Every structure is written in structure tokens, then in C-alpha cells.
Amino acid sequence: MAGERILLVGRGHLGKFLRERLRVDGDLHWIAELAELDEGSLKRMHPSAVVNTAGKTDLRWCEDHPAETFRSNASAPLELYRRIKAACGPEVPFVHLSSGCVWDGPYRADGKPFGPDDPPAPACFYSWTKAAGDAMLLREAPGGALVILRPRQVYSPLKAERNTLSKLARYPQLIDTPNSMTSAETIAKTIERVLAPGGEAARGRILCVYERGVTSPFEVGTFLAQAGLRKKPERISKADLDQTLKPKRVDTVLSDPCFEALVDPPAAQDELKRVIAAYAKA
Ligand SMILES: NC(=O)c1ccc[n+]([C@@H]2O[C@H](COP(=O)([O-])OP(=O)(O)OC[C@H]3O[C@@H](n4cnc5c(N)ncnc54)[C@H](OP(=O)(O)O)[C@@H]3O)[C@@H](O)[C@H]2O)c1
Known about the structure:
alpha/beta; Rossmann fold
């Protein structure tokens, strides 16, 4: 992405990974009140694309702080989009990180994976605000430059609190329910393809982002144990986990032919083993 002027928003797990991985010429971080992103600074920077990774992501915290969660996950992305549009024009690609957690499965009622056109069915406040943020952005910017990415259980080699590998290395008991997972590398490739010449066809829509096939928290825990990063996990049933966890854990399997044609993602198990090996060395 040499020569691009990417405005990368968010200093969390994914923001840090993308900052390093996308090798952007210039980046700018979003502070809580958006004060750094006034019209003057946006006009001076004139980004060629915007990638928004900011959001409140701790499910328990989100239940306890609904106003701030709604502001960060729904109102703030819309305000950011409006500021970019006003300062730089409606044609600047705006890539927004949503979540596959807007669906509570693991599968649809007909037994198929969830796809980008399925209506959201949020099971907790965090998921509800992510779905609301997407709906507000899509209403404001139908078609055109907006791209909404819905990954699931994001992981990378970084030793970060929100890295799914860090979470699954901590819990002694893990469920064995089918789930999609998303490597931060797959998100980076998706962003590159969407912003590259020819990527216009994938803009103006929602893309589910994931590796091929399914895995489970128990399988990931087993891979982490094989890499010496935790003890061998014990299995816990979903029903037993739901008794103890508030809000309850969401399981989701994703499918999106448009995304697969654009990115040709690796198999879930291959990518997990590659990234866990890098995580172990970090
Ligand atoms: N992690 C996953 O498994 C996963 C899965 C699917 C989708 N996603 C989505 O991917 C995006 C990135 O996730 P992540 O894993 O990088 O989460 P993260 O590590 O929690 O990073 C999010 C960052 O956004 C910041 N932030 C929150 N509200 C903000 C606001 N109003 N203004 C500026 N910054 C704000 C957070 O700061 P504070 O910590 O100070 O709040 C945090 O640094 C999120 O939108 C998330 O919903 C994540």
C-alpha cells in the first residue's frame, strides 16, 4: 500500500497489528472526542482511505456502560464517516470493522452458516451496538465507498489482551462448538484487496471475513497446549458455560462467496497453527 494515505483509527489489538502490517505512509489515531480529526486536519491529510478499528469490545463492560458503548460503536463511527465525507468527499473508501457476533448461532435456523445479507440477531448489548452502527452507516452511505467487515474471534501473533489466542490461553475449560475465526492477517489482506484497483466491486457492501472451515475454542486450546502455551483444556458444554457467563458467549459460523472470491482465505487449522507458532515466539 505504498503511496496510500491511510487514516487508521484505533489503538487496540487490531489497530496495532494493521499499523505494522499495512505499512501505511501516514497514520493518525482517533481520540475519544474526535478532537484530532477536525475538518482542517482531515483536509490537510486528505486520506486516500479510512480504516476504523475503534470500538468498545469487552462484552461485560458494554453491558454495564450502555451509553458509552453505543456512542463508541454506533454514533462515533457515523460521526467519523460524516467528517470524512464533509472534508474529503464521499468517494474516499471507508472500511469499518463490525463483527460476526451480530449473529447468534452457530448456524441459522435452517442449519446453514450466516451470510452478509442475513438480518442481524444480536444476543448481547455489544452485538446490538455493532449491528446498529452498521445499519446507521449503511443508511447514510448506501453503496459507494463504505465497506463493512464482519470478522469473528480475531487473533494475531501480538500478545494483546483482546487477541482471541490470549483469551483462549487463559480459560481452563473450553466449549467444543463450531465457530469461524479470523486471523488479523486475513483482515489485512481483505483491506488490501478492497482498496486495490479492481476492488471496487467489493465496496458498498458487508463482507464476512474468516478462514475456511470451522474450528472450536477447544481445538484452539489444544493447539495452544501443543505449542506449550497452556495446559491441555477440559471440555465444558455450552449449556454449562451459559449458566456462568453473563452475557452469554455467542457462537457463529460465517459464509460469504464474495469474500472468498476476493481473498481466497487459508484453511482455519493451517492459519491457526501458523499464527500460534508466531505468537509463541513473540
Ligand atoms: N477482538 C475480536 O475478536 C473481534 C471480533 C470481531 C470484531 N471485532 C471488531 O474489531 C474492532 C477492533 O477490535 P480489537 O480487537 O482491536 O479491540 P480492542 O483491542 O478493544 O481495540 C479497540 C480500541 O478502540 C478504542 N476505542 C473505543 N472507543 C473509542 C472511541 N470512542 N474513540 C477512540 N477509540 C476508541 C479502545 O480504547 P479503550 O480500550 O480505551 O476503550 C481500543 O483501544 C472492533 O470494532 C471490534 O468490535 C473484534
